[in-house]
Design goal:
single chain, 415 residues, Growth Hormone, Chain: A, 2 domains, globular
Length: 415
């Protein structure tokens, strides 16, 4: 390993973390809802659809990045994302009609975040095959913190210069940051990569076989894991997308509406912060205790979060609301980070980019299931209590299901 000492791999992880931090601003879409609705009189369902479109094209961007990874260098792929982000934010500043921002923000920005997020993570992780879980957890923590860290500065810009100029500022910032990332990030030298992979195989942190996408989707492990992550992501996305009104419903019983809104917004921030910490925590647990215990802990914390939310509704308790949101943030952050860890440790690093992109598409299904359940029960009963009960059932099912998820032995397809 003498040659390996000539290379310093930590900077690549730091650069990927910074990129993920900025890309995480896509989850802060709610910052733009109020000014857009005030200017155009759009309904909440309209502005919410913009976020939904961005999530769909986030997944599309992941898939495209995976496909391009076999054809272009990381520099070229991230540069494509830089152009898409710059065009998307700049075009959004000229919005006059709803379909325009569907395309400018929803399609272009969502696509750019998916491409850059996938490529930066996949490239940086090639420097850490022996520390896949903790490395991916640290990098993805950046995306979890994105809206919490960058939200206040963006809010300040919105108040000072308006949403149109803010979009223009973001166009420049994202383009510059991504171009810098494109210049810095690159794959490790082939010889060094072989040394790192040999070390990873010694520690059994990566799969013995590199699965192609068709091979991966023919395994039982893939489908069982996909069901497990959808059960947890559904609850996570449901509460993330309804965090403020869900907290307000409880708090207005004990304080006035304006105070309830302020506290509910702070509670929502707790989800973002602990979402990031959950990603890091999952990496530590996975590397130290293995994937089975990591799965058990995630499902258990998810169940605890729903129990706390149910108790908060029945007792109108602020501490229980905050505790429930914190636990949910940890569980959701952990389960999202697990998709990166499982890609390398179950299916190998060679086809990481494409395989990870495929697993990430679970968000499309989860974002359709979770928020729909929450909205349906809220409309029918005026409360989120029934939705919490459903998600508690999801948590129990996920706890049982995870015992069936096992690492493929040698690529044998499931029948």
């Amino acid at each position: 390993m003498a040659e390996a000492k000539k290379y310093h791999r930590l900077p690549y992880g730091v650069v990927a973390f910074i990129l993920q931090l900025f890309l995480g601003l896509i989850y802060g879409w709610s910052l733009f809802i109020a000014p857009l609705e005030a200017d155009f009189g759009w309904a909440r369902s309209d502005t919410s659809l913009i976020f939904t479109i961005s999530m769909i094209f986030f997944c599309v961007g992941n898939l495209v990045a995976g496909w391009l990874s076999k054809r272009l260098s990381p520099r070229a792929i991230i540069f494509i994302a830089a152009v898409a982000a710059g065009v998307g934010f700049l075009a959004s500043s000229f919005t006059q009609v709803l379909p325009w921002i569907f395309v400018s923000y929803g399609v272009f920005c969502g696509f750019a975040v998916g491409v850059a997020g996938n490529c930066s993570l996949a490239t940086a992780l090639k420097w850490f095959p022996d520390r896949q879980a903790i490395a991916s957890g640290c990098m993805l923590m950046g995306m979890g913190f994105g809206s919490a860290v960058l939200g206040p500065p963006v809010n300040t810009l919105l108040a000072a210069i308006g949403w149109r100029t803010t979009f223009q500022v973001l166009a420049v910032v994202f383009f510059v940051i991504l171009v810098i990332g494109a210049v810095v990030l690159h794959n490790p030298p082939e010889e060094y990569s072989k040394q790192l992979l040999a070390k990873a195989h010694e520690r059994d942190t990566v799969a013995g076989k590199d699965f192609t996408l068709p091979e991966m989707i023919r395994t039982k492990a893939f489908w069982l894991y996909l069901c497990w992550i959808i059960l947890i992501s559904s609850g996570g996305l449901a509460l993330i997308s309804n965090a403020v009104p869900a907290a307000q419903d409880i708090l207005v019983l004990s304080m006035d509406a304006s105070a309830a809104l302020a506290v509910a917004t702070s509670a929502m921030g707790a989800i973002s912060v602990f979402n990031g910490l959950g990603k890091l925590g999952l990496g530590l647990i996975w590397d130290k205790l293995g994937y089975r215990r990591a799965f058990i802990i995630i499902s258990s914390v998810y169940a605890i979060s729903m129990i706390l939310c149910i108790a908060a509704v029945t007792s109108s308790s602020l501490p229980l609301v905050v505790a429930g949101f914190i636990c949910l943030g940890l569980a959701y952050g952990g389960v999202i980070s697990s998709s990166s860890a499982i890609t390398g440790s179950f299916f190998g690093p060679k086809n990481y980019s494409m395989n990870y992109a495929c697993i990430t598409c679970q968000m499309i299904i989860a974002s359709a299931i979770g928020p729909t359940i929450a909205g349906m029960f809220k409309t029918a009963s005026g409360s989120y209590l029934s939705a919490y009960i459903v998600f508690l059932v999801f948590a129990v099912l996920s706890f049982l299901l995870q015992f069936l998820v096992k690492r493929p032995d040698d690529g044998t397809s499931a029948k």
